[in-house]
Amino acid sequence: MKIQYSIASSVFILVLFVFLSGCLGQPTCNKPYILVGTDCCLDSNNNSICDNDETQIGQHNQTEEQNLSQQQVQNQTAQQNISAQQNQSVQQNQTTQNQTAQNQTTENQTQETGNTTLETTSVCGDGSCDASESSSCCSDCGCAAGQTCVNNSCSAFQGFKQIPQIDFKLIQFCGDGVCNNNENSSTCCDDCGCSGKFTCYNNTCLSKIPFTQMYTLNLSSYDVKLSSDSVAEGTRPKISEFYVAWHDYISAKPHIMLYNLKTSKVVQLSNATSEYGPDIFAKRLVWEDGRRPTGAENIDIYYYDIPNGVEGILTTRIGYKHSPKIDGDTIVWSEQASSGENLYMFNLVSKQETKLLSGANIIGYDVWGNNIAWSMFTCNTNPCTYNIYVYNTVTKKSQKILDTQSPLDYSLRIYGNKTVYIVGSGTNTQVNVYDLNTKLTTQITSGAGQKVDAVLYNNTVVWADKRNGNWDIYSYDLVQKAEKALVTETHDQKYPDIYGNKIVYLDARNNRNIYMYVKMD
């Protein structure tokens, strides 16, 4: 019992000691002070918060407000900077757009003709149709269908007129196959034959042809003389399905001559003066004509519908127009400009003229179907650059098919999907054929000797060749890939043209004549 009492007394004393110790360590705070932890603090507004703490909270809130204001100022400054940057970017973009527009305007004011770049300054007559000229400068912008530009004014196309048949003059000559009243066996045995046992050789009746002069007729081909002797030097005969055309001087004036392949008759087209450089398609004829008195150097392009006897001038614009080409309803010609030459196209259906090139250095051109080919050069660099383009009259787009620094011959022909041209200079010239479908070029000659006047029909290429020391006529079969010498007579044969199996050319024998070579194989 004593032990249990002693333990209980000890526990009571310990608890009492702890309680008294806690009470003795906690101070007593009198108003307006309040107890906070073990300390007393002033609470003058009786809100149970020490006044000292309220001051710190206020300072903290003030600091946060100041920081917030500073952040707002920074945000406002940043926003101003962003706005300034955006404005600067917009201004830069606007400046770039304006510069781009200026560059585009400058680019639009630069007309690219093939590989020739011509700077224009919006001047009427410079060959570039600018926006400000669309209705005031037909010299650059052309005219509507059925109108033509004359003295920078669009006027109704004058149309074609009927010409009296009396203007046609039948040309009679020795070799036309008809023994005329002024011919006999002595003067023209080629037409009138010889009497008895005499034989006509070189237009002379001989009783016996010397063995050295005898020849065997090649039944695979033969030559036909189409003209009288001494035709004009440089005349280039042209052939179609029905006619052969060339120009010749009669009474010292050039006239267009027509040989009818069916009747074998030659006629002088008209009595008008200064007609030369013809081209022919079927029964349609075009040529250079200087009959119109203008008081200035002027050559016009005339068109003639042979069976209907209808003739017309394509444009009355003053200027030197030359080398017309015709195929179907399209006529193309070149016209001298203040610098270089312009290339024009005329459609016989719409009666509309279109300028294709302005101020270009044109070498040659041709037309077939919807395609017009031209060759040209530029000398902005040394050496000069030579190009060939093909323009489609339907899509109104052109493609470059040749870019070279080797000179080009003036001859250029297009037929179907093929274009033939001659590249090189001097005795090192070669004939090439470009295929518009395959985009491939084939060189069909390789030997020495100058080659000129390449022409094309279907798969046959014909040209004049000087490999033998004088000009001869050669051909190449694109299918058989075979070359053939056609006419190698000792005199010069030049300026060939081809239609079907017939090839016409100028022959220097008998003091220049028009001959036709007929292939029978």
Q: Which strand order spans the largest sheet, edge to edge or round the barrel?
A: 7-19-18-17-16
SSE-based structural type: alpha+beta
- Low-confidence runs: 1-9, 13-25, 55-75, 81-121, 162-169, 210-220
Shape: elongated
Q: Taking Cα atoms only, what radius of gyration do you get, to the nearest Å?
A: 49 Å
Q: What fraction of the residues are assigned to beta strands by DSSP?
A: 35-45%
Beta-strand segment tally? 38
Round the mean pLDDT to the nearest integer and report it.
76
Output the number of helix runs.
Answer: 4
Percent in helix: 10-25%
Largest sheet: 5 strands, antiparallel
- Distance between the ends: 159 Å
Oligomer class? single chain
Please provide a written account of the structure.
There is one protein chain. The protein is α+β, with helices and mostly antiparallel strands and 521 residues long. The protein has a domain at 29-56. Helices cover 17% and strands 42% of the residues. The strands form eleven sheets. The chain has a five-stranded antiparallel beta sheet with strand order 7-19-18-17-16, with no helix packed on it. Strands 8-15-14-13-12 form a five-stranded antiparallel beta sheet, with no helix packed on it. Strands 11-38-37-36 form a four-stranded antiparallel beta sheet, with no helix packed on it.
